[in-house]
Amino acid sequence: MRGQLAKVKESVAFLEKETKLRPHIAVVLGTGLGGLADRIKAASVIPYKNIPNFPISTVASHEGRLIFGSLGGKTVAAMQGRFHFYEGYEPREITFPIRVMAAMGIKTLLISNAAGGLDLSFQAGDLMLISDHINLTGQNPLRGDNVDAWGPRFPDMTAPYSRRLIDLAQKAAKDLGIKIHKGIYVGVSGPSMETAAETRFLRIIGADAVGMSTIPEVIVAVHAGLKVLGLSVITNVNDPDNYQPAPLEQVIATAKGAEPNLVRLVEEILRRM
Question: How far apart are CA 264 and CA 268, in angstroms?
């Protein structure tokens, strides 16, 4: 863990030389949602490959860039692309950028993803605010030695997603005329999609949407004391009694189709923060 601490400090030192901006808000853009970055008035755009110790995005639609700039009237740091278990990364590698941004002074994390709907009232292209999550990845990024300066050994997960930010987002969506759900996100490791039997199980345990990301970053964000708002774009609805394939191309296309509403909503949320 001492090595991890040194790596974070090295990355922070590099980034603080690359940009003069010191944002308090970070945005993570998930599968098919990288276009939100086009709305950022960028002051600095830094490829992950240039940042010491950063992992590299290997998934289609994940550009792999850290952008510092202005969005919704706020100064932000935006990750255009993230990392996943199924790429072969370890939990601490996946969450390394969150550690770096927290060390740079980030206080709030807005995190988005593309997810399969489990609630049959959902429709492809809908947006869902994450009210809570279920971690079925079998992994936890806090496993191992704890760095007390980063956060407590046993962080409280009573409300990992800020209730104040959820209320703010719901009001913003209502004022914009954007339909939005609120539900529980379940994270799995992937990369294989869920079987019909697994889908039934996920619905039985109370999940409303399923995906292969987000939860590791949220756990580390909570550990670091950040306020978190999670947003899912529902790319398809998994009905186990009428199960249909959801190829990646469809997932990306649906996410991109929902992006205009997501962009409007995120910008309005930022304006109201």
Answer: 6
Nearby residues of 4 by Cβ (< 8 Å), 6 or more positions away: 92, 96, 99, 147
pLDDT tens digit sequence for 201-210: 999 999 999 9
Q: Which residues of the chain have pLDDT under 50?
A: none
What is the structure's pLDDT at 197? 96
Tell me which amino acid residue 162 is: S
Strand, helix or coil at 144?
Answer: coil
Of 20, 270, 43, 59, give the one whose Cα is nearest residue 262. Answer: 270
Q: pLDDT per residue over 191-246, tens digit each? A: 999 999 999 999 999 999 999 999 999 999 999 999 999 999 999 998 888 888 87
Please name every residue paired with 112 in a beta bridge, in sequence order, or none if there are none. 231
Residue 165: partners with Cβ closer than 8 Å, 6 or more residues away: 108, 227, 228, 229, 269, 273
Q: Are 37 and 27 in contact (CB under 8 A)?
A: no
Host domain of residue 221:
2-272
Q: Which CATH number goes with the domain that contains 46?
A: 3.40.50.1580
From 183, 191, 84, select the one nearest 141 (Cα to Cα): 84
H/E element holding 91? helix 91-94
The whole-number pLDDT of residue 133 equals 98
Q: How many Cβ atoms are within 10 Å of 241's Cβ, its own excluded?
A: 8
The count of domains in the chain is: 1
- pLDDT score for 32: 63
Q: CB atoms < 10 A from the CB of 266, how many?
A: 24
Query: Contact, 240 vs 199, CB < 8 A?
Result: yes
